[in-house]
Specification:
- The protein is an alpha+beta fold.
- The chain folds into 3 domains: 5-78, 2-Layer Sandwich (Double Stranded RNA Binding Domain); 100-195, Tyrosine recombinase, N-terminal domain (DNA polymerase, domain 1); 211-425, hpI Integrase, Chain A.
- The protein has 17 helices and 7 strands.
- It has helices at 5-10, 61-76, 81-95, 100-111, 117-135, 145-157, 161-180, 211-221, 228-240, 244-248, 276-281, 299-312, 333-343, 351-366, 372-379, 389-393, 400-414; strands spanning 18-21, 26-30, 36-44, 47-55, 255-256, 271-274, 293-296.
- The protein has a 4-stranded antiparallel β-sheet with strand order 1-2-3-4, with helices on one face. The protein has a 3-stranded antiparallel β-sheet with strand order 5-6-7.
- Strand 1 (18-21) and strand 2 form a beta hairpin.
- Helix 4 (100-111) crosses helix 7 (161-180) and helix 9 packs antiparallel against helix 12.
- The longest helix has 20 residues, at 161-180.
- It is elongated, with a radius of gyration of 31 Å.
């Protein structure tokens, strides 16, 4: 028997949710909390489904019956009422301006609590550079897989194969977010992963192999017209042999044991403590585990830091962008300096790690110090052979005293006949 307005008004909550049937599959569902919603049960493509028409009293009994009748007409035309409802909702979102850029910015804001500031910046910059100019103004329901693929082909065209793959993942995540919000129904980026070019497996990075050649790299770079900040970043990179991304985004808060008020003060316990999240961003393999990396700093590195302090001591970053002191140096700045000055294909910023490993391991053999090999690996943030990930997590300061000694030996060999770090500041504004 059909419901009456009185029955609907008097429907009270109970311990469990329950239904009050009307007619034609329409019913009122009452939750234990007292919320009342109009629903209709129907079959489509041999499957039982349910569509919700809204809550009472916002949707009256009469209005609910009208929506039920409209749904039945759709079924007669072999259309799914729930799917038609979603289409209307998406069209309304599109009409209200639910473009890719608007939705992506909402998605990005939701992710920032899970990401490091550097990761959030990298994703934002990639979208602003490669995504928004192409599909940013378009409603999500109008974006298809060929559009996304054409956009990514442009990224591949400049040789950034890995970047194209990461952008596809982020674009797909935006569509996943939009699907969950009911703004669109499909993810056009999900199906094109295999259409992208494969990432070429990286070979060994070009690197010099002798201490004389290593010293020569710094001598040449520090005699160029490049800015002092780039030269100092290059010298710190060579002294600490971290990955270039760790140096370019280094922050002052990561350094300990240094008296910034007295450049002449001895700093025997100076260290650079790189947080795990920053190490993870610069890992060569996504399967690697990242841990906090503690780097003992020799006096030559502390000298570089004092010189840099004079330029950027009021900024968060040591090596700031030319455009803004609130952002780190571009990831290609040091590499461009090396290439411009004759080292293209001979030595790259990442090559300092291979140079250090080669020279210091050969030294360990000459001095009959086989235990130094594991320590050299630790200085490069490599997991020594035979050590489990959990053991590495508890052994981040592996042989710190010997690591400090080796860092000192490396610096003593490398910084020979080079100008004091402060002299790299002379005659330059940056």
């Amino acid at each position: 028997m059909p419901l009456t307005d009185l029955q609907v008004r008097k429907a009270q909550p109970s311990e469990k949710g329950y239904k009050l049937a009307d007619s034609g599959g329409l019913y009122l569902y009452v939750t234990p909390a007292g919320a009342r919603s109009w629903r209709m049960k129907y079959r489509y493509a041999e499957k039982e489904k349910v569509i919700t028409f809204g809550t009472y009293p916002q949707v009256s009994l009469t209005a609910a019956r009208d929506q039920r009748d409209a749904a039945k007409l759709m079924l007669r035309d072999h259309r799914d009422p729930a799917l038609e409802k979603r289409k209307r909702k998406m069209e309304a979102y599109a009409a209200a301006g639910a473009t890719f850029e608007i939705t992506a910015k909402r998605w990005h804001a939701d992710q920032t609590t899970r990401w490091s500031p550097l990761q959030a910046t990298k994703v934002r910059q990639a979208f602003e550079r490669d995504v928004y100019p192409v599909i940013g103004p378009l409603p999500l329901i109008e974006i298809d897989a060929p559009m996304v693929l054409r956009m990514l082909r442009k990224v591949e065209g400049r040789g950034a194969i890995d970047t194209a793959k990461r952008i596809r993942q982020h674009v797909s995540a935006v569509f996943g977010y939009a699907i969950a919000e009911g703004i669109c129904a499909v993810d056009p980026a999900a199906s094109i992963g295999r259409a992208l070019k494969p990432v070429t497996k990286k070979g060994k990075q070009p690197a010099v192999k002798t201490i004389e050649a290593a010293r020569g790299v710094l001598l040449v770079m520090e005699d160029t017209t490049s800015g002092p900040l780039t030269k100092l970043a290059s010298r710190l990179l060579a002294l600490t042999v971290v990955r270039p991304g760790v140096v370019r985004a280094a922050k002052w808060v990561e350094f300990e044991g240094i008296d910034w008020t007295d450049p002449a003060a001895i700093a025997p316990e100076a260290i650079w403590r790189v947080p795990a999240e920053r190490m993870k961003l610069d890992m060569e393999s996504k399967d690697d585990e990242a841990f906090e990396h503690v780097i003992p700093l020799p006096p030559q590195a502390v000298e570089v830091l004092h010189a840099v302090r004079r330029l950027t001591g009021r900024s968060a970053y040591l090596f700031t962008s030319i455009r803004s002191s609130r952002h780190p140096m571009s990831e290609n700045t040091i590499g461009y300096m090396y290439a411009r000055n004759g080292y293209s294909g001979r030595h790259v910023p990442h090559g300092w790690r291979a140079t250090f490993s080669t020279i210091m391991n050969e030294r360990a053999i000459r001095e009959r110090r086989p235990d130094d090999r594991a320590i050299i690996d630790a200085m490069l943030a490599h997991k020594p052979k035979g050590m489990s990930g959990s053991e590495m997590a508890y052994n981040r300061a592996l042989h710190m005293d010997r690591r400090r000694e080796l860092a000192g030996h490396w610096a003593d060999m490398l910084i020979v006949n080079l100008r004091p770090a402060n002299e790299l500041l002379e005659g330059q504004a940056r």
